[in-house]
Design a protein that fits this description.
120 residues; mainly beta; seven-stranded mixed β-sheet; four-stranded antiparallel β-sheet
């Protein structure tokens, strides 16, 4: 129903910047709460940032002040602007969309991920 595709990952130097994009097809994203997760090899997946359908944002402490999540509903896209990147930011980044209709009915979609490597 909702297909998410991440893009924008790559290799960057420490202190550099990168913007990830998550484009959706099959539905519109405006009604969904969106999030970026990341997972490094051998590590558990962690929540990086969230943005609600109303535009409210939250960030993990580790990225607060450096990352910015945003959405462009007209383009059916959510972004993650990453500045002042650190080697510990290296991970596969995943886009997530959620829409809870009621307590027992929730739509939850994931992209396939995009690799971000921060290294000199």
């Amino acid at each position: 129903q909702v297909q998410l595709v991440e893009s924008g990952g790559g290799l960057v130097q420490p202190g550099g910047s990168l913007r990830l994009s998550c484009g959706a097809s099959g539905s519109i994203l405006s009604i969904y709460d969106m999030a970026w997760y990341r997972q490094a090899p051998g590590k558990q997946r962690e929540l990086v940032a969230t943005i609600t359908s109303g535009g409210s944002t939250n960030y993990a402490d580790s990225v607060k002040g450096r990352f910015t999540i945003s959405r462009d509903n007209a383009k059916n896209t959510v972004y993650l602007q990453m500045n002042s990147l650190k080697p510990e930011d290296t991970a596969v980044y995943y886009c997530n969309a959620r829409y809870k209709v009621r307590l027992t009915l929730e739509y939850d979609y994931w992209g396939q991920g995009t690799q971000v490597t921060v290294s000199s």
